[in-house]
Structure formats: structure tokens, C-alpha cells
Amino acid sequence: MSMLKAVLFDLDDTLFSTTKFAKKARRAAVQAMIETGLDVPEQDVMRELDEVIAEFSSNYDHHFDKLLQRMRPSALQHLNSAMIVAAGVVAYHNTKIRELAPYDDVYPLLEALRAAGVRTGIITHGWTVKQAEKIVRLGLLPYLDPKAIFISDQIGISKPNPKLYLTVLNDLGLDASEVMYVGDNLVNDIAPPKSLGMLTTWARRGAKQTPEETGVQPLHTVDDFVEFAGLLRGVYGVDVKL
Amino acid sequence: MSMLKAVLFDLDDTLFSTTKFAKKARRAAVQAMIETGLDVPEQDVMRELDEVIAEFSSNYDHHFDKLLQRMRPSALQHLNSAMIVAAGVVAYHNTKIRELAPYDDVYPLLEALRAAGVRTGIITHGWTVKQAEKIVRLGLLPYLDPKAIFISDQIGISKPNPKLYLTVLNDLGLDASEVMYVGDNLVNDIAPPKSLGMLTTWARRGAKQTPEETGVQPLHTVDDFVEFAGLLRGVYGVDVKL
């Protein structure tokens, strides 16, 4: 019997490609705004939008309003700007609904972990409504232990504070050594649980930084969840078939 | 040549059935919340949701949170309530995207009016983002004069204040006698433009009150837009074929 009682996952860029998805949705939004009458080349609007997101953070609620404020008024003189913003918002959400999907190997892994009697859950950082909606839209809910979904905004503790992970261990009634955490971000997802004695796996396909750049060494590193399943079988004796 | 230069419309329950759509979307949301683990009979949740909407207004942003707060804690003890809220929100929005459509005779009417050289637009009461998104999702944008879309929240004047309609006349550079306003709500859509000398048509298929109840008499009354087109042809000499 394996000592591994639970595998918990980061969400963004670990279970799906946030970056790839956001790029598609933003492009669809910009194209819709141009079709609705924003008379500016697509490339210029995309560049301005990237700047807005960098300046106001990706969780800001009014990117498209800010974008239009920054565009030259001559591009908007014949139009109600609210309609251009709405066209962008609608295209963004339509893309989100159509495109949002986990990496191909996510459902099989979660299914196999459940079959093997290992609890599965999520510890994610972000706004409650946004993260909860992503979990639902990604279709992850049926694969997760409903008591093991943790959103930092709900708990009031943010990554990379190790207290977030400690709260989760206490809530689940598990020892640090019995829980594996899997994430793409070395600073937020690997260093804090490692400092508590939790097992850590760096899922590097969505990662933006390396161990060399961050000085953080994960216990394990995998390129995908087929490799991760092999690790669970070989090192931890968990009977997961993918 | 007709003296009628523009026909402006109310949005909710005039160009589409808000009531019918909201009912469908709310039912889908409640069913999704129950599927996600809210262990309460559908009928009870629907009744509670109707109360929440009545108490907090339909434009409130957190109906489903309030709904769960009001439900007995025992129904939620094994679940993260944010996931139930998210399941409801996702089902609501999916229904919105799938179901939102204007009455069947709306596109033909707007198309015929444009062909006849009559300007078409909207004066709607509500929050800018919500109303603008509805106009986009209903597919109305290509049929409207982009300079003739007015949202009360953007103008800072709310129905039934006649100043809202006066502002629109000034913006369009038209005389009251040259503009017809079409709406379902006698108090908000008929009385104020009538007081300014505008032409008024009560589109009663979505109406909740009668002239007898409100003491407001519209200039014209129609059951649908085929009848309205006949009125425009017969009384105003506008060449609209439906």
C-alpha cells in the first residue's frame, strides 16, 4: 500500500494551457472590436491590449474599456464605445466556452488516480468566481474530491505563502509526507509545499521559469502526465494505468 | 415622403422576450447547482431564487451566492459552495448564449426600415455592460444606426425621466414629431416620449400592465411587428414590406 494518500494540482498552466487559451480569446476579442467599427490595425490593438494587461494585471475587469480609452478618439467618433467593448467581451467569452479544455492526459490521470484510491484535488491562486468557473468549464469537477478544492481567495491566504498549503493539509487531515503537489510555477507551487515536507512534482510543459533561474529544485520533474503516471507507479507504488 | 425619420425601440420585452429567456436560464442554473451537489428539491430552490431576485433586484451580481447563504447549511456540508455557484453561473451563461434571440419579426422589420431610409435605434434602460452585451448577442448591431444606440446608464438619465428622450432627440438632431418610439412598458416607454410630442407605439406582446392599470394611452398599439409594418405603411406612408 502506497504512503501517497492525495495528489493535489495547481490549475493554470498545470491542468490546461492558460497562456495559449488567453492568447486565442484575446485575439478573437480584438477582431470582434475591429469588425464592430474600431478602425485600427489588429496588430496595433493587440500590442496595446498586451500593455493594458501588463499594466493593470490579468485579473482586472475592464481591460477593453481601458484599451478604448487609450486608442485615438478618431477611431471611435461614429460609434458608441460600449458596443465595441461588448463585442470584445462577447467574443472573448464565446472563445472561452468553445476552447477551454484540459491537457489531453488530465482526465485519464484523474480517473486512474481515483480508481487507485488516491484523493485528487486542486489548490489554485486567484479570484474565487474566476477559478471556480474555470474548474467547472474544464469539466474537472466530476474527477475531484469535492472537499479538496481550495481557492486562495476563499481561504484568505495567497501563494507562495506556505500557510495556504498547511491549511489544506489540516483540512484534509493528512500529513505533509502523504501529499504530492503538482504545479508549473517553481516559486508558487514547488518551494512552499517543499518547505513543509510535502512531495513535489514540477509539471514543466506550461512553465515560464527554470530551477536555475529560481533556485528552486523540485523533488520530481515531468513533461506530461503519462510520465507522471509512470513516476507514481515506479516510485510510489500507486497502481495508475494511463 | 414620410415625415417619419427614425423609429427607436426599447430592448427588453420589446425586441426579445426577457421574461421567457430569464426563466429558462434560471431553471438551467438551478438544475446545474443541484447536479453539482445542492441537495434541495428543484422547486424549493426556484422559489428561493425568485425571492432573492425580488429582494435584491434583477441587476444584482450575486444572486446565487445569496441563494446558497439562504439554503440550509446541511445541504452544503460536503461541498465548496463556490463550485455550486460557479456551476449555476456557467449554466446560466451557456443558456444565455444558446437561447438569446429576438422575436422572429425583428430582423425583417429592421431590415425593411433601413431599406426604406428610416433610421433605427435603441433607447434602453439598464447597466451599460449588460445592455450592450444583449444588443451584441441578439445580433441587432448590423441593423442599427451606430449613432442611435442609447443606454440610460451611459447617459446618466433613467427611464421614465423624459430628459432621456430629449437628449436622444438632441443627439440625433430630430424633431419629436419625426421620431416614433416603440416599447412594452407604458410608464417607462410611452408616457415620457408622448409628453415630448414624440410618436408612440405600445408593443404589447411582452407587456405586464394595461393602459387601464397605468392610465397611459399610447398613440398606437400593436401585437407584433407585422402589424406594426402595416401601421407604418398605412398611416405614415413608409414603404416597409414584411
Walk me through this protein's architecture.
The structure is a homodimer of 242-residue chains. The radius of gyration of chain A is 20 Å and the shape is elongated. Chain A contains 11 helices and 6 strands. A 6-stranded parallel β-sheet of chain A has the order 3-2-1-4-5-6, sandwiched between helices. By secondary structure, the first copy, chain A, is of the alpha/beta class. In chain A, 50% of the residues lie in helices and 11% in strands. The model of chain A has no long low-confidence stretch (mean pLDDT 93).
Indicate the topology.
The structure is a homodimer of 242-residue chains.
Chain A: E1 6-9, H1 18-35, H2 42-56, H3 63-70, H4 81-99, H5 106-115, E2 119-124, H6 128-137, E3 149-151, H7 152-155, H8 162-172, E4 179-183, H9 186-195, E5 199-203, H10 211-214, E6 220-222, H11 225-236
Parallel strand pairs in A: 1-2, 1-4, 2-3, 4-5, 5-6
Helix pairs in contact in A: 1-2, 1-4, 2-3, 8-9
